[in-house]
Design brief:
The protein has a single domain, classed as Creatine Amidinohydrolase. Helices cover 29% and strands 23% of the residues. It has four helices and twelve strands; from the N terminus they run ααβββββααβββββββ. The strands form five sheets. It has a three-stranded antiparallel sheet, covered by helices on one side. Strands 8-11-12 form a three-stranded antiparallel sheet. α3 runs antiparallel to α4. The longest helix has 18 residues. It is globular, with a radius of gyration of 16 Å.
């Protein structure tokens, strides 16, 4: 069910990306409503949390939901949403630019967050401490000079609840076990400018991690 939920969100994410320039001029509220419609159209049976749509400076607030700000050309937009299939939720985040050119620093920050996500996923295997996965992501961001702008844990477990153990948080010595499912979602947030977060769900396998979603992680639509 978690795999099916992930695939459902993948299809909706691709359709949102395909909107491209058509998303420019929409408000965050309007895009959030369209995301809910697309999720239902792709077979989603509800949403575990309201779609998060953070455009421009709103994206610098990790838990901004959505508001009446109009999406402009060149805006980085943080899109964080999921759906439910057979009672199991999914959760995915991408940060995109629907049209135009983003702020000068954006492409660099996006690349740093991508690298942090990859480093964290590559650390996952049975017996590894959850805190080590967090540290792998955090070290990449710190080395790039953005350590003080990564202001939340790297991830959270996903099961029947969209937030549960294991929490991928600094200092946790909880050992990962085969079958654990959790998010990997590093982010960098520059106040009053923009934010970047990239989130995938992974399941711990005998020899590493399997991704439960696999859409384009790039920022150009």
């Amino acid at each position: 069910a978690l795999r099916r939920a992930g695939a459902t969100v993948d299809r909706a994410v691709e359709r949102v990306r395909d909107m491209g320039a058509d998303a420019v001029g929409m408000t965050e509220n309007e895009l959030a409503a369209e995301i809910e419609r697309l999720l239902a159209d792709e077979g989603g049976e509800g949403i575990p949390f309201g779609p998060l749509v953070g455009s421009g400076p709103n994206g610098a607030m990790p838990h901004h939901s959505h508001g009446d700000r109009v999406i402009e050309s060149g805006d980085p937009v943080v899109l964080d949403f999921g759906t439910v299939v057979d009672h199991y939720p999914s959760d995915q985040t991408r940060t995109v630019v629907f049209a135009g050119e983003p702020p000068a620093e954006f492409a660099e920050v996006h690349g740093v967050v991508q690298a942090a996500r990859t480093a964290a996923v590559e650390t996952v295997e049975p017996g590894v401490a959850a805190g080590d996965v967090d540290r792998a992501a955090r070290e990449v961001i710190e080395e790039a000079g953005y350590g003080d702008r990564f202001i939340h844990r790297t991830g959270h477990g996903v099961g029947l609840d969209v937030h549960e153990e294991p929490y991928i948080v600094a200092g946790s010595d909880r050992e990962l076990e085969v079958g654990n499912v959790f998010s990997v979602e590093p982010g960098v947030y520059l106040p009053d400018e923009f934010g970047v977060r990239i989130e995938d769900l992974v399941v711990v396998t005998d020899d590493g991690a399997e991704l439960l979603n696999d859409t384009d992680r790039g920022w150009r639509c």
